[in-house]
Amino acid sequence: MPLREVIAALDARYDPALAESWDAVGLVCGDPDEPVGRVLFAVDPTTAVVDEVISTGTDLLVTHHPLLLTPVHGVPAEDPKGRLVHRLIRAGAGLFVAHTNADRAPGSGVNAALADLLGLAGAVPLEPAGDDPRAGLGRVGELRAPMPLSAFAAHVAALLPATVGGVRAAGDPGRVIRRVAVCGGSGGSLLPAAAAAGADVLLTSDLKHHPVSDAGEVAGPALCDVAHYASEWPWLPVAAEHLRGDLAGQVEVSVSRLRTDPWTWHAAG
Amino acid sequence: MPLREVIAALDARYDPALAESWDAVGLVCGDPDEPVGRVLFAVDPTTAVVDEVISTGTDLLVTHHPLLLTPVHGVPAEDPKGRLVHRLIRAGAGLFVAHTNADRAPGSGVNAALADLLGLAGAVPLEPAGDDPRAGLGRVGELRAPMPLSAFAAHVAALLPATVGGVRAAGDPGRVIRRVAVCGGSGGSLLPAAAAAGADVLLTSDLKHHPVSDAGEVAGPALCDVAHYASEWPWLPVAAEHLRGDLAGQVEVSVSRLRTDPWTWHAAG
Amino acid sequence: MPLREVIAALDARYDPALAESWDAVGLVCGDPDEPVGRVLFAVDPTTAVVDEVISTGTDLLVTHHPLLLTPVHGVPAEDPKGRLVHRLIRAGAGLFVAHTNADRAPGSGVNAALADLLGLAGAVPLEPAGDDPRAGLGRVGELRAPMPLSAFAAHVAALLPATVGGVRAAGDPGRVIRRVAVCGGSGGSLLPAAAAAGADVLLTSDLKHHPVSDAGEVAGPALCDVAHYASEWPWLPVAAEHLRGDLAGQVEVSVSRLRTDPWTWHAAG
Amino acid sequence: MPLREVIAALDARYDPALAESWDAVGLVCGDPDEPVGRVLFAVDPTTAVVDEVISTGTDLLVTHHPLLLTPVHGVPAEDPKGRLVHRLIRAGAGLFVAHTNADRAPGSGVNAALADLLGLAGAVPLEPAGDDPRAGLGRVGELRAPMPLSAFAAHVAALLPATVGGVRAAGDPGRVIRRVAVCGGSGGSLLPAAAAAGADVLLTSDLKHHPVSDAGEVAGPALCDVAHYASEWPWLPVAAEHLRGDLAGQVEVSVSRLRTDPWTWHAAG
Amino acid sequence: MPLREVIAALDARYDPALAESWDAVGLVCGDPDEPVGRVLFAVDPTTAVVDEVISTGTDLLVTHHPLLLTPVHGVPAEDPKGRLVHRLIRAGAGLFVAHTNADRAPGSGVNAALADLLGLAGAVPLEPAGDDPRAGLGRVGELRAPMPLSAFAAHVAALLPATVGGVRAAGDPGRVIRRVAVCGGSGGSLLPAAAAAGADVLLTSDLKHHPVSDAGEVAGPALCDVAHYASEWPWLPVAAEHLRGDLAGQVEVSVSRLRTDPWTWHAAG
Amino acid sequence: MPLREVIAALDARYDPALAESWDAVGLVCGDPDEPVGRVLFAVDPTTAVVDEVISTGTDLLVTHHPLLLTPVHGVPAEDPKGRLVHRLIRAGAGLFVAHTNADRAPGSGVNAALADLLGLAGAVPLEPAGDDPRAGLGRVGELRAPMPLSAFAAHVAALLPATVGGVRAAGDPGRVIRRVAVCGGSGGSLLPAAAAAGADVLLTSDLKHHPVSDAGEVAGPALCDVAHYASEWPWLPVAAEHLRGDLAGQVEVSVSRLRTDPWTWHAAG
């Protein structure tokens, strides 16, 4: 099947029109006229992932994060990102990015997958986008059973892929959590939306000291911070499953076994 | 002793001219003509810290973080920060901020205190500022004895105040660490300076996924992430000790016993 | 009655949504939960007015001009405006500002009060704002009886509060004035709107040489310049009267007896 | 004498390099190759002044204020300023502007002339400009004899050309004035410089309510406001006298008898 | 007939509201109350054209290009454009500009005239503007008979006024041209619109190397470059004819015989 | 020889520090560690030039014009420029750009080569750059023998590579040309510098109607316009010769035989 048709299937699920204006989605390298037999999904286009692409004979790597979010005037091999472009092109492998369009996608996107994994009932977008009311950034829904914040943190740690940093929470550990807002990736800016939606907690990643400290001074959701990678990983098997179906089994689709969370060690404080 | 004289002693240590142009340092509330008998140091001007100010009869609270970094058109008590201003003014207590000027101060600043606590020999600023070569952001120096990155993380965890999140490291856990760059607070932007200085690791806080992931793709320092609060706390006893001496013992100076790190819970991943 | 309810009554008359985007209206200091027994209206929050607030046991000062139009990072008492905040907070008095929302308010605002004092019939806004056609900046209406510009100046001087600078007019002193445009405060930018509305004169304040000189070179309204303070003062008794009624007499409401026009002396040219 | 040589004499006194970057000085219309026998000085290029130019057979009008400070795409006669250009060109008369370069000129400029008229001893610029220490905006010097602010206002009124608005002062009328800062035209922005220079009063024009009100809240100079026209008129006879000398009497040079202050009437408040 | 009525007739054909926001159209000099007996049309208001205006006793010059596109603070005769203003005003001649409003005019504008001259059938705007579907920039229509690009270049050279530079084409000389896009003046930015309209060639002027080189790398229209002057000249006789009719023959209307293309010599490469 | 060493030789001749801040010079694709046996120079990286690279087994293409002046988020093969990157990378060929650094290079740059080809004596930069007085944009020098502008155009046409558009001149064809300013590429903005340098003509490319028309209205240089490609081509053999020598003959260096001027046809006007 030509790459062109695989791209069409991905664009149908993750409409590029849903991407943020500053984003860089779509094909980074590869030729739409060349055939694709094997597709691999990963969160990040790192060197280790490209090694896997090449060693497995993958024809198309689909990642959530852009390789070239900052635009470039060239892809020389002396630059680490340019080197990956050289390796992919020479191996005949394409790279395709579904980033904020995958975050906002209505049915099988990053935030929908995260909400599903946590078992949130009645989940709807925190920040709707586009015409479809099911599309947008973040999700907010109800836990099947209320639990204290401390238990919620353990629940999250058990469901998401393991990372050395684990799960941190801010707020009264005994606070009862019923309504949960989530945002895969760096979602701290959705705190006002989570508060407006009546969430008891906002689960996201890359939270910094000042907004968390300020949140502690007002009524509003507790906060739960996980590895950026862990918050987005749940999308990979979902997206792979959908693509497999969309292409009627003509292409082999798998999920990378690599953990691309960059943190490698933890020492208790 | 009038507040005016305490401020003069603080300004002499933490020259306001060293502050970043966007920063908000100096007196937030309080009357320079009123007397000060008791000074309390803390990292953050939170509600709990103001409770401590009032319950201990403190006349001047000195914090590292500004209360009003975003400027305001008023301080109404319905706003959490305005409420703190009301409580401090009614209690006759002033609030003084030493932020990026304390970060950059040559001898007794935030970064110098952090480097000293870690026992770095020959520490110099990562990003010099002003005329004094000892002034500037960050520090880089040598550990007394080399150790693997994994041991370095444990070493840091043992020396800094305990936090629920502990210490995370990115890089090969077995990499030998000799030369250490540090930056109290959010110092990820100093990574190029740390690399240029030949550091084996950069210790700072508030690191986000993308720069850490990119750092893993190039040669350069490993990364070590601690709580923002923990990275700046070492300054408090140093600054208190200096002020006590500068005021010749006429004013009682202490350090808050409160942990203002907003994270309250951790679940292993 | 709690301050919260007084604020609600003021917001109902002077909808904050009518304020310019650059403006700073609402509560500057004070606690919405504390009780209010006495309210004082003034044009400017000056030291003399705050003296009056404190000596009269006023609980809420309502001014037209913002205290902190330029936002601040603190309210230290060494700054004159910070000193007023300290004095008000320690005296338990709040400060509330109704500025461009009061200018534009439909029925009992600054411009409506000025037009009423001058006896303008059929007055409508010069620059409509919001959904209510009676709301907006400036007013234009008809004098009960036409009079020459020179007599109009004397008429204005007799009706507005006395100021040392008096009233100046530009244009042929004998020109007959029928249709009058007014704008409380600095309203020179409304000259095109006044011309379009067929006004014979625009009465406002803070007019500078160049626009007045240019206006003399074209057909269009004559100009009449009064003290900024004088042009806005007429609102005070009107607003006080309305608030008294809105609060059903439960709160004592008065108008400051102080003249806050800063000009203190005049010598004839 | 060709216009070119008259311009050279004016440029030598009022160096165009001293003008502000936003200003519009130099020749507005006229041909440098045509002869000039008669020069007229005025503050403003109004219709009445152009009438005088034409009725007196003047060849060159020199004004302080630019005709076209806002640049234009044409000078059609339906526009009042374009009409003046048509009348001047058809009458064979040029228009030359010396504005902020005349304000800042060292020896015979607008501010120097104003300081001289008030009899200020040891006057130096408030805001130096260029290489010559005598050049710059504003002047500050000592009165021959101290006097109260009220008497100072009367003194000013007696020395400057009469205007309907007269002279206003802000501050304690009894304050003793010794050191006087002046700035012809709209000079309110020089208040900090006047304060730094230890002035007891700043005399200028076009002062608006807010800065004058704020000035009343701090220690610092009193303020004195005169007509913009009156503050700049003193330059006209000085400049005419200098030009007459510079051209060795070959050209007839005079000062317009017209008052171009646009205010025509005053009613006491 | 007063100039005012001639302007009204021109504005009716070339609605100023159709001009670009950065443009400078309308009357540059002249008095709407003065009589007009003779009107001359030209592309550029150059010295040679003004010589013709004066020698022929023309009362109104109408040009396509603005004299003062960059706005000015004066029109001194030492500046070449100011000198033309002096000469026109002294000769009693006005200058009127119809630029991008003439480009976009529906029936008798610059682009319509160019399309008509080339015999394009069914021509419609490339970039519609305003409410009238016939108004807008550029035109695209069908040649009466297809011809190779090389023959099209010769066809254009034969129909447009002769210029030393002649006509250049980029693309396969044998490519068959059926559908032609045109844009008088500098129209390279319309290439995407021409491609979207299915044009085989875009004829315009002032094309630079890089966009032409890039166009050669993709499918899309060939390019044809003529002198800027030549591309706009066809409007002159059309506009003159229309104005003659609109003014019912009361005013003598003619087209300048001058070639204002600035290129004077050509050497074959 | 590794590509790294070829790049070092090019950077030594064409210091990247001389490039404009907006430019995109250096390696676009290729691996500095791979060997280079054959280098090809061309003005533009077009498809035809890449065909030549591949058919001749070239390892490094050096062009004057950047492939990716507008930065990109990817190089997918469906984009014409991305397709060239794919073809080059798969063929093992690098692409290196020397653009404004080559324009400004002191001894063997684009402008120096153009001046040499025209035989200009005593040529110096029109707009010096960097520390070396021989470096900078454009050149100005003396013809060996004066000649009329018409003959100069023929002289230029004879020396530069042939192009369909030939050479155009603006100005009096009989004007005697002695002193010649040149600027390879789009150099119209250097006209003031050429005038200040006393040039009789400025030779450059991509000149548009308005600046050429304006130039005809003032004293100053005549203008001569050639194909952008033709003005930069003279650099190719010079740069090839230098690189051959710098690499001591270890690498085969040649100049593309392709004409990359995009114009393909000319019809006399």
From TrEMBL, chains A, B, C, D, E, F:
| Top-level division of the source organism's lineage | Bacteria
GO MF terms, alphabetically ordered: metal ion binding
Pfam families on file: DUF34_NIF3
| Binding positions (a divalent metal cation 2) | H64
Give me the residues that bind a divalent metal cation 1, please.
H65, D103, H228, E232
Keywords from UniProt, A to Z, are: Metal-binding
Entry's InterPro entries? Answer: DUF34/NIF3, DUF34/NIF3_sf
Q: How does it assemble?
A: Homohexamer.
Family statement drawn from the similarity comment of this UniProt entry: Belongs to the GTP cyclohydrolase I type 2/NIF3 family.
Q: Under which name does UniProt file this protein?
A: GTP cyclohydrolase 1 type 2 homolog
